[in-house]
Every structure is written in structure tokens, then in C-alpha cells.
Design goal:
about 270 residues, alpha/beta, 6-stranded mixed sheet, 7 helices, 16 strands, globular
Length: about 270
């Protein structure tokens, strides 16, 4: 039996990167103490700031990002695989990438993924988002290695685009990471349903670490971090939006068993129309 003890970190990031680094480190250390050797943090780990001008004041090139540097050192010190859900890194004047990083137990960056689907949405009469105004979209799906296993990387709004996950599954992904900062409105309505759907239709493990609660900049996020098995079972879930950790053992043999039981990846067919 192949077991990975995994952890999802739930945060409530602020407008201060140093405070967020301290919060993330404390939660990661708690998860490591609980035995986790693969730990994932949420989207916007280092910064939650709705004001684009103030946000861009904190954004640095990847090589100068202090949070990235600190978390790489922490992963090396603890000897863990660490998925940094996302950091905002400068990629052009007044433009950032919303970038997820996979860090090895040696502290090396082994994979980078830039969020492909940007959240340009009118959530309600009072809540509107336009990520593309200051974020540059990615254009490449990323499959990475965690030891002998394959990891498909995604971020938040990507969750609504099933084709991304199917392509990753067909390429060999056995685990999908979905770090997020879902709004309360969309999280309450769709978070659990979408996560379970992506797990079931691809027979993959889903690890979904989330932001949660009322943030310093006034944003409200849903929380309810989850880990879901390849049959769609919710094996671990936080029932609140407070900063916390979620730790569970993932039986990786379930992936092959579920794909044998329902071989949808092999049975997909090309078709024409409408």
C-alpha cells in the first residue's frame, strides 16, 4: 500500500506579507508535527490585498520574494514536499503572475504553475472582480512529481474548467491541488460540489487548501478546506473558515483501483457536432 500523509493549510492572509509568512510557517510546522510529508498552502499565501495599486507595491520578481525564500528554507529544514498555493510575482511593469510553486525536501523549486483562468466575474450587485487588470494569465498546464507520484497543479477559478483536470489526468496526474480563495457566495454554492466532481470524473485525489474568513482588506472568503479521494469521498474537511490544518493519509492505490472500476479516461471518444 502506498500512503502519503498530506496536509491542507487554511489561512486568513492579511495585507502584510511578513505577517502571512509567520502565519504560514506556524501552520506548516503544526502539520509537520502531525506527520505530514506533503503540505499545501492556499492561494494568496503571502498577500490578500484588493486594492491593485497597494497590491503591486508588494509584488516582487520571483528572485526577490522573501516569502518564497523563507518557505523554501522551511521545506528544506522540515524535509517536506511543500506546495505553495500561490504567490504574486512580478512578470512585467504593473503586471503579476498568480503562481503556484512545488518545493522539494531539498528546498528546490521543482515546478511552477501560473493560474490560467482569471477571475473576471460579477459575483453580485456589490461584488465584482477583474483579475486580468493586474494579473497575467498562464497558458500551460503543469504536471509535477512528488516522489513516484504525479501531481497536477491548478489554482482557484481553474476549478470550473473541467478540461484542465481531464488533460492532467490523461497525462498521468494522481493528485490534483486546488489552492483557493473562493468568495463566500460562490464557495457556499459550489466549492464542495466542484471539488467532488473533479475527483470523481478523473479518479484523482484532490487537495484543496483555502483562505477563509473576513480579511484585513474587507474581502470575505469561504474556507472549508478539503481532501477528497478518487471515488469522491470527503476524507477530511474543515467545517469553518478559521486558520487551521487538515491532515489525512492518502492511499494512492485507490487511484488505480477507481480507474479500473470506472475506466472513463480510456473510454472517452471523439465526436462531432453540434
Amino acid at each position: 500500500m502506498s500512503i502519503i500523509r498530506a496536509a491542507a493549510i487554511q489561512m486568513r492572509s492579511t495585507t502584510c506579507p511578513a505577517q502571512n509568512m509567520e502565519q504560514a510557517e506556524g501552520l506548516i510546522r503544526r502539520a509537520h508535527k502531525a506527520g505530514a510529508d506533503f503540505i499545501a498552502t492556499p492561494e494568496a499565501t503571502s498577500l490578500v490585498q484588493m486594492d491593485p495599486k497597494k497590491m503591486l507595491e508588494h509584488v516582487k520578481p520571483e528572485s526577490d520574494d522573501l516569502c518564497l525564500q523563507g518557505l523554501r528554507k522551511l521545506a528544506k529544514n522540515l524535509r517536506i514536499h511543500l506546495l505553495i498555493g500561490s504567490l504574486l510575482v512580478e512578470v512585467a511593469p504593473a503586471k503579476a503572475a498568480n503562481r503556484s510553486f512545488l518545493i522539494s525536501p531539498s528546498g528546490q523549486i521543482t515546478a511552477r504553475y501560473d493560474k490560467i483562468h482569471l477571475f473576471d466575474v460579477q459575483v453580485s450587485n456589490k461584488e465584482q472582480w477583474s483579475e486580468s487588470a493586474h494579473i497575467r494569465a498562464g497558458d500551460r498546464a503543469v504536471l509535477a512529481d512528488i516522489g513516484p507520484f504525479k501531481l497536477g497543479m491548478s489554482i482557484c477559478y481553474d476549478l470550473r474548467f473541467a478540461d484542465l483536470y481531464r488533460r492532467l489526468a490523461v497525462a498521468g496526474a494522481q493528485i490534483m491541488t486546488v489552492p483557493a480563495a473562493f468568495t463566500r457566495v460562490t464557495g457556499n454554492a459550489h466549492w464542495q460540489t466542484l471539488l467532488a466532481a473533479r475527483a470523481i470524473e478523473n479518479a484523482t485525489w484532490i487537495i484543496a487548501p483555502a483562505q477563509g474568513g473576513l480579511h484585513e482588506d474587507g474581502r470575505r472568503t469561504w474556507g472549508r478546506s478539503m481532501i477528497i479521494d478518487p471515488w469522491g469521498g470527503i476524507v477530511a474537511c474543515l467545517d469553518h473558515d478559521e486558520p487551521d490544518i487538515l491532515v489525512t493519509d492518502m492511499n494512492m492505490d485507490m487511484v488505480a483501483k477507481c480507474r479500473q472500476r470506472l475506466p472513463v479516461l480510456q473510454q472517452a471518444r471523439e465526436f462531432t457536432g453540434p
